[in-house]
């Protein structure tokens, strides 16, 4: 079900091949399309059902989040019930790699999250552990750098308005270390919610490491059609220049619509192949920008998806104002990845945290958050309208 990149009249970056179960990315192989489950991993039946539905929709790799040993135990049973190529998403506890590796085809770790567990231990020791486990269990690795959770040491070296350089330095550093371990079965992702940052950081990385396969994606792209448009902007600029070996379209959709991520990814690649591109779209237009994370198993209340949709409807009146509102579904990405938004909401099981930039405003019940958000949005619009142009 892969889109054959040989059809693209594009000179691909000469990346090395990386095997992920039955799929191989890089080295001119077809661009693989991925998605991620949104079910709770410990709900084995639901997770297996969604994995198989995504495979049926055409997913080449399906990612599952594992946050605890109970999740890891569930994954062992999930593996028995599906032949899908499974990638596991490790969060703070890197040691879970040992529990999940026998049951998956790829391990994804976030360099910025390595600082959350066993803080006194150097990150190099943790990566050495992950790479060793992966090698022993026939697993690939993805170094997943994300704009909202970059290695704090890297962030401190650059100005506040430069979010790209810390991501790039972190990725290059981890590649160099993995190479020093003679572990080369890895790919890299550098994701941001701004397509222009995604374009810049992946271009710069590809210039310096032409050999490393890249996993492309715009994180927290939001709801369709906006989320697809943002992703398309980045993919056209990158894939059109031969950059990218596997992709994920991250959309905020209900569980039964996760297959739309696969459809969108394949449609974008097919359009690029046929020359149907829309890169004249200017993402920098002075309009309202709503970003929201993709529905995944870390979401603690499925009301998050409905809330994201309600926020989009409620803020329609403000669409001509250049403001960013972020709606995040969990405590893993929410606190950090709302900092750069003008207004941010991150959802807990029973309440929604509201922020203005990095400043906490308060926590509100789900049925009270929209009026409070509107109050803050109206105040921001007035504030900005009073500023000299």
Report what the structure shows.
The protein is α/β, with parallel strands linked by helices and 389 residues long. It folds into 2 domains: 270 residues, Dihydropteroate synthase-like (TIM Barrel); 97 residues, Sulfite Reductase Hemoprotein, domain 1. 37% of the residues lie in helices and 18% in strands. The protein has an 8-stranded parallel barrel, surrounded by 6 helices. Strands 11-12-13-14-15 form a 5-stranded mixed β-sheet. β8, α7 and β9 form a beta-alpha-beta unit. α1 crosses α2, α6 packs parallel to α7 and α7 runs parallel beside α8. The longest helix has 17 residues. The N terminus is likely disordered.
Short description:
With 389 residues, the protein is of the alpha/beta class.
Q: Number of helical segments?
A: 12
Query: What is the approximate shape?
Result: globular
- Rg over CA atoms, rounded to whole Å, is 20 Å
Instruction: Give the class-level CATH name of the largest domain.
Output: Alpha Beta
Strand tally is 15
Which strand-content bin applies to the residues?
A: 15-25%
Helix content: 25-40%
Structural class: alpha/beta
Q: Kindly, what is the distance between the CA atoms of the first and last residues, rounded to a whole number of angstroms?
A: 51 Å
């Amino acid at each position: 079900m892969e889109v054959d990149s040989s059809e693209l009249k594009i000179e691909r970056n000469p990346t090395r091949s990386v095997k992920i179960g039955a799929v191989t990315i890089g080295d001119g192989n077809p661009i693989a399309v991925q998605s991620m489950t949104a079910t709770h991993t410990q709900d084995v039946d639901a997770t297996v059902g969604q994995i198989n539905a995504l495979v049926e929709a055409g997913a080449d790799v399906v990612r599952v989040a594992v946050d605890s040993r109970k999740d890891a135990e569930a994954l062992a049973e999930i593996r028995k019930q599906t032949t899908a190529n499974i990638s596991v998403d490790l969060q703070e506890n890197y040691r879970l790699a040992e529990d999940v590796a026998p049951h998956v085809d790829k391990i994804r770790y976030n360099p910025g999250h390595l600082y959350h567990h066993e803080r006194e231990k150097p990150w190099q020791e943790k990566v050495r552990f992950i790479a060793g486990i992966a090698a022993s269990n026939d697993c690939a690795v993805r170094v997943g750098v994300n704009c909202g959770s970059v290695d704090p040491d890297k962030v401190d070296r650059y100005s506040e308005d430069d979010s790209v350089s810390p991501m790039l330095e972190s990725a290059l550093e981890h590649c160099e270390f993995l190479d020093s371990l003679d572990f080369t079965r890895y790919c890299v992702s550098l994701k941001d919610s701004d397509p222009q940052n995604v374009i810049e950081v992946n271009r710069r990385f590809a210039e310096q490491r032409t050999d490393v396969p890249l996993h492309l994606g715009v994180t927290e792209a939001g709801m369709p059609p906006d989320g697809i448009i943002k992703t398309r902007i980045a993919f056209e600029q990158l894939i059109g220049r031969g950059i990218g070996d596997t992709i994920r379209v991250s959309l905020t959709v209900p569980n039964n619509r996760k297959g739309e991520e696969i459809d969108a990814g394949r449609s974008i690649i097919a359009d690029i192949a046929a020359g149907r591109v829309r890169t004249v779209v200017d993402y920098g237009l002075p309009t309202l920008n709503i970003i929201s994370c993709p529905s995944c198993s870390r979401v603690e209340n499925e009301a998050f998806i409905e809330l994201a949709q309600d926020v989009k409807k409620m803020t329609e009146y403000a669409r001509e104002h250049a403001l960013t509102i972020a709606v995040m579904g969990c405590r893993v990405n929410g606190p950090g990845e709302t900092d750069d938004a003008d207004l941010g909401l991150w959802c807990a099981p029973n309440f929604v945290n509201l922020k203005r930039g990095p400043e906490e405003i308060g926590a509100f019940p789900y049925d009270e958050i929209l009026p409070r958000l509107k109050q803050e949005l109206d105040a921001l619009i007035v504030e900005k309208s009073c500023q000299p142009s």
